[in-house]
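Thread: quick sanity check before group meeting

JM: Hey all, I'm pulling together slides for Thursday and realized we never actually wrote out the predicted structure for the chain we discussed last week. Dropping the sequence here so it's in one place. If anyone has concerns about the input, flag it before I start.
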Amino acid sequence: MGAKVLVLGSGGREHAIAWKLAQSPLVERVYCAPGNPGTAAEAGVENLAIAATDAEGLVAAAFARGVELVVIGPEAPLVAGVGDRLRRAGLPVFGPDAAAAQLEGSKVFAKEFLQRHQIPTASYRRFAELGGAQRYIRQHTLPVVVKADGLAAGKGVVVALSHDQAQAAAEQFLAWGPIVVEEFLHGEEASFIAVLVDGQVLPLAGSQDHKRLLDGDLGPNTGGMGAYSPAPVLDAAMGERVLREVMRPAARGLLADGLPYRGFLYAGIMVTAQGPKVLEFNCRLGDPETQPLLMRLRSDLFALLRAAAAGDTLPPTLDWDPRPALCVVLAAAGYPDAPRNGDAILGLPLADDPDVKIFHAGTAAQDGAVVTAGGRVLGVTALGASLAEAAARAYARAGAIRWPGMQYRHDIGHRALQRGR
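JM (edit): ok, ran it. Output follows.
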């Protein structure tokens, strides 16, 4: 009999995690709480109608089903301490506890951590009242970045091109709590994700996300409109610098601060003329970076996460498909401000191509149909012999899917493709 695993969450990241875990010969069953129609359709995967933040319900369900590992996908249950409750019940959990998850749950906590452990990042000031923030913003060079302190699902950051825009963002975010105002970093952004286990650091392949809604990196910030891996900006030399200057100091810093950490640590990196600088930390896999990363991962994900949750020695490296992978996010009408739900999705394939996979992110089952139920609805992800081929495959499949008001970017991977040319 194989192992039973519980994955918390309902997005595209969690669909990809469940799909990959179910491929392990060591796994008999993957449960998703609550999952989505995509996870429900996967072989060896079963959805449970339990919220990812319902700690007591999750403990009961895990013991009733003989679960041997819990993998926490999104940030909300991490910050809410769901992992802490599951561990107290004696369940092996992959994902940091609430104290360490403040690295993502609080921008102020993260900036103070970076400063304390001398990890390169943008200069900043914290504000809890509007007057001081407005005075500081008026004197600041442009662009200037304004961030909400707490979780904001990718919508708590404004890169302001005018002082008026920055002050409006400060006023909006201060209604939720403290804010951070920081310098704008010039360079190319990349995602560097690693498995951290009590000071050990095992990097994943590099990737790059596209935060802006529109082609050419225009429009409002979103949770991510597409991603690809590998990212040429994170070549071997730059990857080693990020390990040396960011990830290993962060792992040491967590130990020094008395914060045990067994989970993914995601560093949003700006590669500047001075080297890599941290834009943000997330305490889980990125979404949509997870989708191309897990399409490329050849190592057994279950064996890796089980060992990490137990505090075992990590392998020195992971095995990756050398082919690039690219994910195009299909978003609902009105995203990101007011996404419309309930639109029937047409053109979903009956079977997967081995090199093209559609991950459900914001969908629901309704009257026998799959409908939109979130801002980012699907992630169409493809492998290719080149990044251009991966993009062509992903866009060909995306073009066959439709619903009223569906929107997506047409230039995912443009930086890497331009480098190639």
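AS: nice. The longest strand covers residues 262-272. The chain is about 30% helix and 30% strand.
JM: adding both to the slides.
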